[in-house]
């Protein structure tokens, strides 16, 4: 499929979605949001793809929701707009998604990165929730996901001041898994996605789903879900293959079944 606002590419088992609204620093207008979700869904539906990478440009992963598009909304328009729930399409993707962040990830851009399963950053990346400086608050999960990533005090500091943090601080605080030189970032993200993509796909989906349960529910519910999913791994050919390969000291050959 062809999209106006993103570039899509597949490298072996990795689907790459590159945001492509450079003049607006990838500000997330309706068209870009739709294209990100549709491109991710296309990779979700492609059995040859095991993991997805979302990335932007050197200057910006995404500088936030499109302020110009939002500026004149009334309450009833904001409340009624589908745009604000569009990202539910992205958060229901079951394949692992890596955000590779160079440059700005601000407001909705930071929230979009946090919707992904792993955030990797280039050295010059900047993260922030500047909504308060515009007279609004985060609306795509920023107040919820940031606190889970960095804890209350640091999340509050970012949400209440709008101050940005750089890539190294974001890594120290646990928002970002790893920092790379900017020019290596996308290749490193693709390498990690390729490693994930080389695993049994149904097992990777279960690993993501079970890990997300920790994020979304209670410890007891999460452990119960994890245990049930662990049990159900034994219904897969790939579990038999994985454990046989270990015993035979060879690499497993997954059939993704
Ligand atoms: C619309 C944007 C934009 C945005 C940048 N641009 N961010 N347009 N929405 N969020 C546009 C600029 O207007 C400008 O267009 C062009 O991109 C280049 O930006 P500059 O400001 O000239 O670049 P620079 O001086 O390098 O500053 C970069 C920046 C700054 C620090 C990232 O652009 C900035 O502060 N942007 C806004 C960041 C922000 O507040 N994001 C949160 C949005 S609210 P022209 O036409 O002038 O060249 C949000 C809510 C999410 O995300 C929740 C929704 C439900």
From TrEMBL:
Uppermost EC category: lyase
GO cellular component, one term: mitochondrion
GO biological process, one term: fatty acid beta-oxidation
Pfam families documented for this protein: ECH_1
Keywords per UniProt: Fatty acid metabolism, Lipid metabolism, Lyase
InterPro entries in the record: ClpP/crotonase-like_dom_sf (IPR029045), Enoyl-CoA_hyd/isom_CS (IPR018376), Enoyl-CoA_hydra/iso (IPR001753), Enoyl-CoA_hydra_C (IPR014748)
TM annotation in the entry: none
EC number: 4.2.1.17
Highest taxon, organism lineage: Eukaryota
A molecular function GO annotation: enoyl-CoA hydratase activity
Family to which this protein belongs: Belongs to the enoyl-CoA hydratase/isomerase family.
Entry protein name: Probable enoyl-CoA hydratase, mitochondrial
Organism encoding this protein: Ectocarpus siliculosus (Brown alga)
UniProt lineage: Eukaryota, Sar, Stramenopiles, Ochrophyta, PX clade
